[in-house]
Amino acid sequence: MPVSETLDTTPRASPMTGSEYSASPKKHRRRPPLTLPGEQRIRPSKSNPIYGLVDGAKRGSERWEVARKVPQFSILPTWAECNKKFNEKIQAVLRLAEETADETGSWIYVAAQMPTGRHEFTHFASRRLRKEAPGPVNDMNAIAHKMFGGLVSSRRKDVLQLELEVANQRTDLQKLADEKALLYQAKEHAEAVIQGLRLRLTDSEPLSAEELTELLDSTSDRTSV
């Protein structure tokens, strides 16, 4: 049988129907398309960094201009979401690092840690790097461990200090609230005394000196709290 007439038995995935596509899960924080239908396709590059350059990318001590492919993300609203997203993306980073090292024979080292992480820092060293420089790899691990450990400890101290300051502020606010309540009680008592004086002054029988002194002394005791 001629080659052109051979049957292709390679299994192919059938396209999704409309209902299947609408039922498929949507990605978190879906990125906007680079171009709209009918427009010329935009390709972010060093010469056309429409989304800016990767912050912190360097070759040696010199800045390396790497164009972002998508708009820069902002931090997620809660640490729980941040930890979940970190665990997802750092695994993708490690997979990509291993694939790149295996394909290119390069030396790759990656280290990362979350400020609120409950585990030790995450790190990866390519097979070739571990084989050819086991000592320096251990040294880098020790340096990363010390660096991340110091950052986490410092953050915990800052959190404890902040919690202490918040507790002190709450105590001060409670004292102010108590003082305000006492002042309010004194004000109410003074108004009652004044009202009593007004009523007695309108009576036919005037206040005696002893009664007037007693009323003024009670008002003075309340307002001095």
How does this structure look, described?
The structure is a single chain. Helix content is 54%, strand content 5%. It is mainly α and 225 residues long. The longest helix has 69 residues, at 134-202. It is elongated. Mean pLDDT is 77; it is low at 1-28.
Layout of SSEs?
Layout: H1 18-23, E1 58-59, E2 62-63, H2 79-104, E3 109-112, E4 122-125, H3 127-132, H4 134-202, H5 209-223
Antiparallel strand pairs: 1-2, 3-4
Helix pairs in contact: 4-5
Primary descriptors:
single chain; 225 residues; mainly alpha; two-stranded antiparallel sheet; elongated; disordered N terminus
Count of discrete alpha- or pi-helical segments spanning 4 or more residues = 5
Unreliable parts? 1-28
Q: Please report the total strand number as a whole number.
A: 4
Radius of gyration: 37 Å
Could you report the average pLDDT, rounded to the nearest whole number? 77
Biggest β-sheet: strands ordered side by side in the sheet: 1-2
Shape assignment? elongated
Structure class: mainly alpha
Which band does the percent of strand residues land in? Answer: 5-15%
* Helical amount: 40-55%
Largest sheet: 2 strands, antiparallel
Short characterization:
The chain is built from five helices and four strands. With 225 residues, it is mainly alpha-helical.
